Amino acid sequence: MFAAIGILAALAAGARTGRGQRIDTSLLETPIAWSIYEAGSYFATGEAPGFWPKICALLGVPALVDDPRFRTPGDRVTHRRELEALLQPHFERETTATWLDRLEAEGIPAGPILTYDQVFADPQVIHREMAVPVEHPVAGPTRVLGIPFKLSGTPASIRRPAPTLGQHTEEILGELGYDADAIRRLRSDRVI
Question: Residue 84, Cα to own-chain centre: how many angstroms?
Protein backbone atom coordinates (compact mmCIF):
# COMPACT_ATOMS: atom_id res chain seq x y z
CA MET A 1 0.00 0.00 0.00
CA PHE A 2 2.69 2.49 0.94
CA ALA A 3 4.74 1.52 -2.11
CA ALA A 4 1.73 2.36 -4.30
CA ILE A 5 1.23 5.66 -2.51
CA GLY A 6 4.92 6.43 -2.96
CA ILE A 7 4.70 5.66 -6.68
CA LEU A 8 1.70 7.95 -7.04
CA ALA A 9 3.47 10.73 -5.14
CA ALA A 10 6.54 10.34 -7.35
CA LEU A 11 4.39 10.41 -10.49
CA ALA A 12 2.70 13.61 -9.31
CA ALA A 13 6.08 15.19 -8.56
CA GLY A 14 7.44 13.98 -11.91
CA ALA A 15 4.54 15.61 -13.73
CA ARG A 16 5.51 18.94 -12.12
CA THR A 17 9.30 18.66 -12.32
CA GLY A 18 9.92 16.32 -15.25
CA ARG A 19 12.29 14.26 -13.09
CA GLY A 20 11.94 10.72 -11.79
CA GLN A 21 13.05 9.53 -8.39
CA ARG A 22 13.81 6.43 -6.38
CA ILE A 23 11.02 5.15 -4.14
CA ASP A 24 11.94 3.39 -0.91
CA THR A 25 9.70 1.86 1.75
CA SER A 26 9.97 -1.12 4.07
CA LEU A 27 8.05 -3.62 6.11
CA LEU A 28 9.43 -1.90 9.21
CA GLU A 29 7.91 1.48 8.37
CA THR A 30 4.48 0.11 7.44
CA PRO A 31 3.32 -1.05 10.90
CA ILE A 32 4.85 2.04 12.47
CA ALA A 33 2.77 4.20 10.12
CA TRP A 34 -0.32 2.20 11.10
CA SER A 35 0.22 2.85 14.82
CA ILE A 36 -1.38 6.29 14.67
CA TYR A 37 -3.29 5.98 17.96
CA GLU A 38 -0.45 4.49 19.95
CA ALA A 39 2.18 6.83 18.50
CA GLY A 40 -0.03 9.88 19.12
CA SER A 41 -0.49 8.84 22.74
CA TYR A 42 3.24 8.27 23.16
CA PHE A 43 4.14 11.62 21.52
CA ALA A 44 1.60 13.49 23.67
CA THR A 45 2.50 11.92 27.02
CA GLY A 46 5.98 10.45 26.61
CA GLU A 47 4.62 7.18 28.00
CA ALA A 48 4.14 3.93 26.15
CA PRO A 49 0.42 3.26 25.77
CA GLY A 50 -0.76 0.87 28.49
CA PHE A 51 -3.97 -0.70 27.37
CA TRP A 52 -3.29 -4.00 29.15
CA PRO A 53 -4.10 -2.74 32.68
CA LYS A 54 -7.25 -1.01 31.37
CA ILE A 55 -8.42 -4.17 29.61
CA CYS A 56 -7.80 -6.29 32.71
CA ALA A 57 -9.76 -3.82 34.86
CA LEU A 58 -12.61 -3.71 32.36
CA LEU A 59 -12.83 -7.51 32.29
CA GLY A 60 -12.61 -7.80 36.06
CA VAL A 61 -9.29 -9.69 36.07
CA PRO A 62 -6.82 -7.13 37.53
CA ALA A 63 -4.55 -9.91 38.85
CA LEU A 64 -3.48 -10.71 35.27
CA VAL A 65 -1.64 -7.38 35.05
CA ASP A 66 1.08 -8.66 37.40
CA ASP A 67 1.00 -12.29 36.24
CA PRO A 68 4.58 -12.95 35.01
CA ARG A 69 3.22 -14.88 32.01
CA PHE A 70 1.48 -11.75 30.72
CA ARG A 71 3.51 -8.82 32.07
CA THR A 72 4.89 -7.58 28.70
CA PRO A 73 3.47 -7.67 25.18
CA GLY A 74 6.10 -10.30 24.32
CA ASP A 75 5.05 -12.40 27.30
CA ARG A 76 1.42 -12.18 26.22
CA VAL A 77 2.35 -13.35 22.73
CA THR A 78 4.44 -16.23 24.10
CA HIS A 79 1.57 -17.33 26.35
CA ARG A 80 -1.21 -16.40 23.95
CA ARG A 81 -3.14 -19.65 24.18
CA GLU A 82 -3.20 -19.52 27.99
CA LEU A 83 -4.27 -15.87 27.89
CA GLU A 84 -7.02 -16.55 25.35
CA ALA A 85 -8.37 -19.36 27.54
CA LEU A 86 -8.49 -16.99 30.53
CA LEU A 87 -10.07 -14.04 28.68
CA GLN A 88 -12.52 -15.82 26.38
CA PRO A 89 -15.12 -16.63 29.07
CA HIS A 90 -15.23 -12.94 30.03
CA PHE A 91 -15.70 -11.76 26.45
CA GLU A 92 -18.41 -14.36 25.86
CA ARG A 93 -20.61 -12.78 28.54
CA GLU A 94 -21.52 -9.83 26.30
CA THR A 95 -22.05 -9.13 22.62
CA THR A 96 -19.31 -7.83 20.38
CA ALA A 97 -21.15 -4.51 20.10
CA THR A 98 -21.28 -4.17 23.91
CA TRP A 99 -17.55 -4.84 24.24
CA LEU A 100 -16.72 -2.38 21.46
CA ASP A 101 -18.74 0.31 23.27
CA ARG A 102 -17.04 -0.44 26.60
CA LEU A 103 -13.55 -0.52 25.09
CA GLU A 104 -14.16 2.75 23.24
CA ALA A 105 -15.45 4.37 26.42
CA GLU A 106 -12.15 3.47 28.10
CA GLY A 107 -10.10 4.88 25.20
CA ILE A 108 -8.95 1.43 24.09
CA PRO A 109 -8.82 1.08 20.29
CA ALA A 110 -10.69 -2.04 19.19
CA GLY A 111 -12.56 -3.51 16.27
CA PRO A 112 -14.54 -6.68 15.67
CA ILE A 113 -12.98 -9.74 14.11
CA LEU A 114 -15.48 -10.75 11.46
CA THR A 115 -16.01 -14.05 9.72
CA TYR A 116 -16.18 -13.88 5.93
CA ASP A 117 -19.95 -14.30 5.91
CA GLN A 118 -20.13 -11.24 8.20
CA VAL A 119 -17.67 -9.29 6.05
CA PHE A 120 -19.61 -9.82 2.84
CA ALA A 121 -22.97 -9.15 4.53
CA ASP A 122 -21.75 -5.80 5.89
CA PRO A 123 -23.78 -2.92 4.39
CA GLN A 124 -20.67 -0.86 3.64
CA VAL A 125 -18.95 -3.79 1.92
CA ILE A 126 -22.09 -4.35 -0.16
CA HIS A 127 -22.38 -0.63 -0.97
CA ARG A 128 -18.74 -0.48 -2.02
CA GLU A 129 -19.29 -3.53 -4.29
CA MET A 130 -16.46 -5.59 -2.82
CA ALA A 131 -18.16 -8.86 -3.85
CA VAL A 132 -19.20 -8.83 -7.50
CA PRO A 133 -21.42 -11.47 -9.12
CA VAL A 134 -20.05 -13.15 -12.26
CA GLU A 135 -21.10 -16.04 -14.45
CA HIS A 136 -18.24 -18.52 -14.75
CA PRO A 137 -18.37 -20.94 -17.70
CA VAL A 138 -17.61 -23.95 -15.47
CA ALA A 139 -18.57 -22.91 -11.91
CA GLY A 140 -21.74 -21.07 -12.92
CA PRO A 141 -22.94 -18.07 -10.91
CA THR A 142 -20.34 -17.04 -8.35
CA ARG A 143 -18.76 -13.94 -6.84
CA VAL A 144 -15.29 -12.45 -7.07
CA LEU A 145 -13.63 -9.66 -5.11
CA GLY A 146 -14.43 -6.15 -6.29
CA ILE A 147 -12.06 -3.29 -7.03
CA PRO A 148 -10.69 -1.85 -3.73
CA PHE A 149 -10.41 1.71 -5.07
CA LYS A 150 -12.94 3.87 -6.86
CA LEU A 151 -12.04 6.35 -9.60
CA SER A 152 -14.54 9.07 -10.50
CA GLY A 153 -13.28 9.68 -14.04
CA THR A 154 -12.25 6.20 -15.11
CA PRO A 155 -14.05 3.73 -12.86
CA ALA A 156 -12.74 0.19 -12.93
CA SER A 157 -15.11 -2.74 -13.19
CA ILE A 158 -15.19 -6.52 -13.14
CA ARG A 159 -16.27 -7.48 -16.65
CA ARG A 160 -15.71 -11.22 -16.69
CA PRO A 161 -14.80 -14.15 -14.44
CA ALA A 162 -11.37 -15.75 -14.12
CA PRO A 163 -10.49 -17.61 -17.34
CA THR A 164 -10.54 -21.35 -17.69
CA LEU A 165 -7.23 -23.09 -18.31
CA GLY A 166 -5.97 -22.04 -21.75
CA GLN A 167 -9.05 -19.94 -22.54
CA HIS A 168 -7.04 -16.95 -23.82
CA THR A 169 -3.95 -18.73 -25.12
CA GLU A 170 -4.60 -18.09 -28.80
CA GLU A 171 -5.58 -14.48 -28.19
CA ILE A 172 -2.40 -13.79 -26.20
CA LEU A 173 -0.12 -15.61 -28.64
CA GLY A 174 -1.71 -13.68 -31.50
CA GLU A 175 -0.98 -10.41 -29.68
CA LEU A 176 2.62 -11.59 -29.29
CA GLY A 177 2.91 -12.02 -33.06
CA TYR A 178 2.32 -15.75 -33.49
CA ASP A 179 0.24 -16.58 -36.55
CA ALA A 180 -2.52 -19.22 -36.63
CA ASP A 181 -0.16 -21.89 -38.12
CA ALA A 182 2.42 -21.41 -35.37
CA ILE A 183 -0.28 -21.64 -32.71
CA ARG A 184 -1.60 -24.89 -34.24
CA ARG A 185 1.95 -26.33 -34.25
CA LEU A 186 2.43 -25.38 -30.59
CA ARG A 187 -0.89 -27.04 -29.74
CA SER A 188 -0.04 -30.21 -31.69
CA ASP A 189 3.35 -30.39 -29.96
CA ARG A 190 1.50 -29.95 -26.62
CA VAL A 191 3.63 -26.94 -25.79
CA ILE A 192 0.43 -25.05 -25.03
Answer: 23
